[in-house]
Amino acid sequence: MIDTTDRAVPGLRAGHGTHSPSVGSGKLDTTQPPTAPERPESMSSEPSAISVDETAVMTAVGAAIVARRTELKISQQALARTVGTSRTFLRGIEAGERAPTVVTLTRIARALHTTPSALITTIR
């Protein structure tokens, strides 16, 4: 066993960390619980803090994909093949029934010669 009493830890100043060692005792002072910094109210972790209508979001994204695909005269089957997904899955995204991952949305956007942000600009 190595005696670490009164030895400084490199890079750690007194008063930093979870507990402060008592001088000369070799034991940790556990009488003071660690305190977390206060979070600003705007960063609340309450589940009800921000409300999003998921159906409206998925519908808006799906409509934007359909509009761009139609503008470019690309079939659903051709887009699905290019993106690497099934036509049924793409149909679900376009209908607002399925939420694409960010990666899938990026693949769809690239196949439609646009950006993911252009496909979500109608979300309110």
TrEMBL record:
Cellular component terms (Gene Ontology): cytosol
Residues annotated as signal peptide: none
InterPro entries: Cro/C1-type_HTH (IPR001387), Lambda_DNA-bd_dom_sf (IPR010982), TransReg_Diox_bact_type (IPR050807)
Biased composition (Polar residues): 19-33
Family matches, as Pfam families: HTH_3 (PF01381)
Region annotation Disordered: where it falls in the sequence: 1-49
GO molecular function, one term: DNA-binding transcription factor activity
Protein name as catalogued: HTH cro/C1-type domain-containing protein
Protein species of origin: Gordonia alkanivorans CGMCC 6845
Domain HTH cro/C1-type: 65-119
Keywords: DNA-binding, Transcription, Transcription regulation
Xref: SUPFAM superfamilies: lambda repressor-like DNA-binding domains (SSF47413)
